[in-house]
Amino acid sequence: MATGNEKASLLLGWSAAAGFAVWCILGHAVHKRWTTLGLEYGEQLFIIGVFILAPLVNVPLALKLAEPSGRGSGAWRLAAWLQPPAAAAAFASIFLPVGALSAALIAPWIAVGVCATAAAVGRLLETDGRRIEELATSTGLLLLLPGTLALAASRAGLDVLGYEEPYVLLLAVHLHFAGLTAPVIVGQAGRRLRAWNAWGFPLYFALAAGVSLGVPILVAGLALHSKPVEVGGALLLAFALGGYCFFTLFLVLPRLPGRLSRVLLAVALGCAIWSMHHAGHYTMGVARGSTPPLYTRPRMEHIHGLLNAVGFSLLGLLGWLATRRAERRGGPPA
Question: How far apart are the C-alpha atoms of 159 and 156, rounded to whole Å?
Fold first, then answer.
């Protein structure tokens, strides 16, 4: 008989599959101009192509990978059972005008964030925060809640930290992807390195710490309206995540079982390297007060955003899930 965690994990998998089908159908409708959402066409593509992928697909996959084995399991299971209806409500909110009703539909999604936070605290108590790979995963779960709150503020039309739209929505997007997904993906490589007792673990430690700290420092810079802190956090995240991708590509990927998992992860890591290249140039442009034409905010939304959401996050999560499945089947390292 399946355990509670196994049932919740299975539900998350089916929820992600159904969410992906909905995302593809709606994306096709937008491209064919069958659905307008009442927005400018470029903004529609950004919302459908990047943001909506998070509650429908990436978050359930990230929760599935971040399953705790001890403390925090109860909160994690509750997050898993809440995720499908909460994602449906968040999805419905984009079809409504910005206002109180649209924001109210995000309330169940905030509840998922609260449960994820409780699960993260349980994980931290269990490991005493001594394992960087588990600390990275817990950091990702912790950053989901502020992402859900930023989304609620965006749907309510409220300013956050003195910032107006579209920056509030961009904050929500970053907290769902760079905040939740990236640390969870980074934590997966650390688990394998620890099991292998690999010589490169100290370098991994530094890179995982950079990814885990990058987003909180960036948000702190935004809250304090401190450009040096904001730029420092963004550059730390870009260099640490880019370095992690190169590290994993050459030192971790060749030892993983399963051809499918290695292909998915190789593409995901390549997308992140390209994406972090854009992020670094854009951040340096912000620091100088002059953004190069190739790295403007609209181009960042469509290139950097899609590379992160679809390339790195979605394929990366699928790649590590395929790796875990191959390991459970007893597949030997390549």
Answer: 9
